[in-house]
Amino acid sequence: MTLTTDHSRATADGAHSHGVVPAGSRAERKTSFDLADIPVPTGREEEWRFSPVARLQPLFSDELTGDGVAVTVEAAPEVTVETVGRDDERLGRTGKPGDRAAVTAWNAVREATVVTVPADTVASGPTSVRIDGTSKDATASHLLVHAERHSEAVVVIDHRGDALLNQTVEVLVEDGAQLTVVSVQDWEDGAVHASSHRASIGRDAKLKHVVVTFGGDVVRVTPDATFTAEGGEVEMVGLYFADADQHQEHRLFVDHAVPRCRSRVTYKGALQGASAHTVWVGDVLIRAEAEATDTYELNRNLVLTDGARADSVPNLEIETGEIDGAGHASATGRFDDEQLFYLMARGIPEIDARRLVVRGFFAELIDEIGVESVEERLLASIEAELEKSMSVITGAPAR
Amino acid sequence: MSTLEIRDLHVSVDTKEGAKPILRGVDLTIKSGETHAIMGPNGSGKSTLASALAGHPKYEVTSGTVTLDGEDVLAMSVDERARAGLFLAMQYPVEVPGVSVANFLRTAKTAIDGDAPSLRHWAKEVRGAMENLRIDSSFAERSVNEGFSGGEKKRHEILQMELFKPHFAILDETDSGLDVDALRVVSEGVNRAKESTDVGVLLITHYTRILRYIKPDFVHVFVDGRIAEEGGPELAERLEEEGYDRFLPAGTTASA
Ligand SMILES: Nc1ncnc2c1ncn2[C@@H]1O[C@H](COP(=O)(O)OP(=O)(O)OP(=O)(O)O)[C@@H](O)[C@H]1O
Ligand SMILES: [Mg+2]
């Protein structure tokens, strides 16, 4: 067993926090389908302590009746898409809501979109789920991505426009299936988005779960992954880029409830501008029965300007000694001026040098995504983000 | 024919306790094709001179001038200096994760030349230069300096010197940490650059062994932030035998 923490650069940002002992084990955290069980948070709760609870308030109401998003699915020919009522028996099989936003979304929603990859089928192309914000009425939505036994598919969920959205994304990966789910939060300014991703991974199944957050005022994504049978694998990849006044929060929970499963978590973020705030919390629970677990999680943050704050909290709870590997690393560093000097000393102008360094920071992560259209778009979005900070350097107006 | 002229250069370094003077009046003129060796005890300010010439923001020039063919180098930004033809092979090259050597070399070459090199020609040139320096072709896809051994970093610096074709190259302890074979390979690289481009070289070193491969025209003894003595190649031999003691104030030693 290895337990590693990379503190080497974690002190570069005074606002960095790390390794705080959680208030109670994840195993004991209240989860429920019942609204009455999970009260509206005050902000002092462990799972809300970094969040701007006031700005999220509209999403906690039990009257989330708005119709503020349009959902458009372009599916691969092998993949089926349905709109079903909330009583459809396929819903709610990936675990219970774990916080107030999630339980509110579950109770408020009237219908759900179900994307199914039939058993033994390989989808010939990506399936795209577009979620466009159309009005600022607080809205609940529900999506189930269901990969049946031994199927293979890529599903890209794409959020744009402006909305107040409280969302559930269920991901059901049945035995032997291989699924990639990508969720891109590319909202316009003003959007507030809470999203509970709950994934359940069956025997020898593999899920690649990718989260990309650029836009919106407040985005809080809480991906949970639970293994239900041996041999499962989850790779959770995240990339975020926060500007002035944006709050981007990613709270992950990997539940190693059964033996011989593997999890890899890699999240990287860049921050720029006053009061840009990112939060990454990675909870991994290795239960007593989960022998031969292999897990590693990593979070790195690159602080490009003063006044931005990155919180990074890995939590590893291990209830058995019989594991193959468990480790985590978390580091938050300022932009490295020595790298900038090295590149500029080779004739590369400052703007291009910064671009190279930031792209380099994300490079290996982008390669891991493995969905070409998403990779290209990401590179373009990173460029656009960098334009904003470059305009500070060059004095040119931001786009 | 180009001239790099350093006149009465005073440089301080930013420290937590405030500005600390390091260079105390450096005078040095280098012309195209010349090789100047600088030798001096640890901490005497050799790397500070190199960094100040390249424009590292930590080093503040408090007085003096540096000109390249009459142009004010100190008024240029770091990248402008490089594009004007200055090159610094660093004592401790910096790792740049996620930026491949191939991409880095192409980007820098494009910046220095003002337009992108022709793809085919450039690929061939890079491959050839890497072969000459015994750098495995797999390095092209690796991140700049990341996980390179000390010797590999130094060879990568000389690779850039050969490819970027500067007018003046400052080599800060490029020989340190090289085994005998690598020392020869690297020296050959410098000599190739000297032959093909007539580059002026400022070679900072502690050892005469590199001077057997790269023949200096002038040797300067650098002590306490300035040049204490100048001579020909024979001065290097003398330094190796006698050390720096006779240049230091009485009662101190060079190992400080
Ligand atoms: N950032 C800094 N903060 C404090 N002191 C510094 C800093 N940079 C350089 N110095 C000091 O300046 C002096 C000159 O350093 P420099 O690196 O130029 O020496 P050098 O001649 O290159 O030595 P070496 O032969 O060991 O490479 C040293 O005393 C060093 O400690
Ligand atoms: Mg030095």
TrEMBL record, chain A:
Segments for region (Disordered): 1-28
GO biological process, one term: iron-sulfur cluster assembly
Residue intervals of the SUF system FeS cluster assembly SufBD core domain: 135-361
Biased composition (Basic and acidic residues): 1-10
Segments traversing the membrane: none
Pfam families according to UniProt: SUFBD_core (PF01458)
Domain of life of the source: Bacteria
Family, per entry: Belongs to the iron-sulfur cluster assembly SufBD family.
Protein name from the UniProt record: Fe-S cluster assembly protein SufD
UniProt lineage: Bacteria, Bacillati, Actinomycetota, Actinomycetes, Micrococcales
Gene: sufD
From TrEMBL, chain B:
Keywords: ATP-binding, Nucleotide-binding
Matches recorded under PANTHER family: ABC TRANSPORTER I FAMILY MEMBER 6, CHLOROPLASTIC
Every ABC transporter domain range: 4-249
Family designation: Belongs to the ABC transporter superfamily. Ycf16 family.
Organism, scientific name: Isoptericola sediminis
InterPro entries associated with the record: AAA+_ATPase (IPR003593), ABC_transporter-like_ATP-bd (IPR003439), FeS-cluster_ATPase_SufC (IPR010230), P-loop_NTPase (IPR027417)
Annotated SMART domains: AAA
Origin: domain of life: Bacteria
Pfam families per the UniProt record, alphabetical: ABC_tran
Protein name per the record: Fe-S cluster assembly ATPase SufC
Molecular function as annotated in GO: ATP binding; ATP hydrolysis activity
